[in-house]
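Re: that chain you flagged

S.,

Sorry for the slow reply, it's been a week of failed gels. I finally had a moment to sit down with the sequence you sent. For the record, here it is as I used it:
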Amino acid sequence: MKNIFKISTVLFIGVSLVVSSCKKEEVLIDGCTDGSAMNYASDANSDDGSCVFAYDLAQGKWNIDPTCDSVGFKIFGQVVYTLDVASIFPSTSDISGNSQNVISLEINSDSLGIEESFLADVTNNGIITLRDNQSFDIDGIEVPDFGSLNMTVKLSGSGNIDISNTGTLALQLEFVPSIALLSTESSTCQIIFIR
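Prediction finished late last night. Pasting the C-alpha cells below so you have them in one place:
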C-alpha cells in the first residue's frame, strides 16, 4: 500500500510539473492603453506612452485653407455688393486650450479688421463643435452708392481633427447688414486645417 501511495505521489508531482511548465508566458503588447485617447489600442496590455488626446492635438498653430461661397447683398433683388467670404479667414490660425475639452479658435483678418476668438468643444475622438450663439462684426466695408457698411456675422459649425495633424471644419455663416434695405445672406465654408 505504501508503494502505491509513493507511486501516486510521484506521478501527481510529475504531472503537475508537466502541466505547470506548459503554461504560456503572457505576451506583452505595447500600445496606448487609455480608452479616452484617439489611438487607444484595445489589444495592448503594456502602455508605451504613445497616447494622443484630441484636446492636446488640437492646440497650436494651424495653416488653414478655406473654400467658401461668396455672398451678394441685394436691394430689391439686385446685387449691390459681393463679399468674398474666404477673405475673412487668415492663412494661419492659433488654437489654444480654454479648459478641459474646450478650445479657442482665433480668426484674425487685418483687411477686414477682425480679431476674434470662438469657443468649440472637442470630444475624445476628435469631433469639434462650435458653441452656440457666437458672432463677430465686420465694420467699415465701403459699398458704392451706400457708403460704409457694418454687418454682424453669426456662425455655427462642426468638424473633426485627425491624428495625422489634419482637420476639417464645416461652417455656416449668416451675414446681417446694418443697412435695413440690404438682404441678409448666408454662406457655407469648408475649412481644411493642416499642420
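What I noticed first: The two ends are 82 Å apart (CA to CA).

Talk soon,
D.
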